Amino acid sequence: MSLSYLKSGTDIRGTALGENCDLNDAVIQKIAVGFLSVIAEKTNTKPADMRIFIGRDSRLSGERIFNALCAVFTKYGVSVTDCGLCSTPAMFMTTVTEGCTAAVQITASHHPSDKNGLKFFTREGGFEGSDISAVLSAAEQDCPFPEVQGSVEKCDYITKYAADLCEKIRQGVNAENYDRPLAGFHIVVDAGNGVGGFYAEKVLSVLGADVSGSEFLDPDGSFPNHIPNPENADAMGFICRSVLRNRADFGVIFDTDVDRAACVDADGKEINRNRLVALASAIALENEKGGTVVTDSVTSDGLAEFINNHLGGVHHRFRRGYKNVINEAIRLNEAGINCPLAIETSGHAALRENYFLDDGAYLITKIIILLAKLRKDGKSLSSVIASLAEAKEEKELRFKILQSDFRPVGERVIAELEAWASSLPFATPANDNREGFRVSFDKDHGDGWLLLRLSVHDPILPLNIESNTEGGCKQIAELLYEFLKQFEDIDIQPLKGYIE
Could you tell me the domains of the chain? Predict the structure, then answer.
């Protein structure tokens, strides 16, 4: 059976625990061979000359997967460095600071505890989808390398990575007490029992912050308290309540492997999604006036106005998918367009100054520097984004496409939606449709917008609606329902249920 079904965008992902385990040791060992083949071709390096660093998040299957990878790598002469529990961004940084040939992170991000997966890095960045396909294809071939005994050593890399973040904050704040610039701050961290607990212990505490009241810092791959996902409402509820209960100045929440984060101000109000994009944009454009910020396609009209008019930047909506957003920012810079930030509403934020690496801890580090500077002037983080116009309502629905050859169906629906909406006198198509079709409606017809797009990999049409008026989302949904009910190849029951 082909292993291509394990491809998930730019990752490999599958079930790693239980009866339906498809990331068993035999499969992992095949993938390890495929990875060596791709790295050998990319770097023109034999396995016996490779140094590969491996890290993992807190998942229960992580150590088993590490052992399976390590057995193959050392069989063919690789020098393996075991970084133990580590964040995904830290594993990329090993290719920068340690000069290793490649790095592997064992993680399934925010997915359930029985899932796991693999992310791969070289100095050029994370693997693209085409690289993952190449790994899985090579995994099904015989190993082309001779057996040569390799080696394994351990490295506490997360401590070194944290020390670099500490120095970043020291330099950025430049306080009188240079070594402890966060003395007097009370900051709570929610790591969701992933690997983000290091930020409280090895960064904030070291810099003088009071981190009492922080929760779920101990790694536990069963995730007993809440889903480690800043997009999850329950998870955000935990950190918001923690800030208020502890009367903290600031709250931080990470996903499992710390490539995403969100935060909470002293009033217990979350800075997430459009608010997080706005704050990150303010930081990125502070010394880059006129710079471009690339976001995914579902960001709000208020955010566009904030970036374009309040910050003096250029808002560039692109496609969903953090790698799509990052690659577009890189492309713009290569074309001579000043673009310091790529950020998705999910919380993946990548700054040009940090190798366009989506790093939740780095983003929080930049925000904490701003927080400390604002305190000197008697200001708060919320003051930075006070002029951001926020929608009254938002809704997301997903429609299944009922045909196995789903892409032509989805493309036809979107094309006909564009023709239909363009004929309506109260509708205005977006001038930056780079994914699906986005259209705005006037104040008498929902006072907002919708975006219908086709999922990259799945037979799904995701719908996002946003309105500036209470009841506006439902009004827009009713308009859309009258259009979509003609299509028998898509299941619009979720839309009907929402309206009713």
Answer: 4-155 (3.40.120.10), 157-271 (3.40.120.10), 273-390 (3.40.120.10), 393-499 (3.30.310.50)
